[in-house]
Amino acid sequence: MVIGLILIAIVIYWLFTMTQKKQSGVYSPNSNNTTLANAIIILNEQYARGEVGDDEYQHKKAELRNS
């Protein structure tokens, strides 16, 4: 019975720490994909505003996709 209580306590502790990490942004399994998507969105916006030319846009977009 004591072992069962210890296992339950361990599971609760693990769930609590994982929840805290997710909320604080430390644990993010898709953070690299999210960062890449955000970078491409920003690049698209800069291109739409005319801040980036055609060649520079294509070059930066290729660099982002290759990284």
Entry keywords:
0% strand; 67 residues; single chain; rod-shaped; mainly alpha
Describe this structure in words.
The chain has helices at 2-24, 31-49, 54-66. By secondary structure, it is mostly helical. The chain has one domain. Helix 2 (31-49) runs antiparallel to helix 3 (54-66). The longest helix has 23 residues, at 2-24.
What share of the residues does DSSP label as strand, in percent? Answer: under 5%
How far apart are the first and last residues' alpha carbons, in Å? 52 Å
Count of domain modules: 1
Rounded mean pLDDT is 80
Cα radius of gyration in angstroms:
21 Å
Number of helices: 3
| Helix amount | over 70%
Q: What are the secondary-structure elements, in order, as H or E?
A: HHH
Low-confidence stretches at least 5 residues in length (pLDDT < 50)?
none
Which word captures the global form?
A: rod-shaped
The secondary-structure class comes to mainly alpha
Number of strands: 0
What's the story with the biggest beta sheet? none
Compose a concise summary of this entry:
The protein is mainly α.
Topology of this protein?
Layout: H1 2-24, H2 31-49, H3 54-66
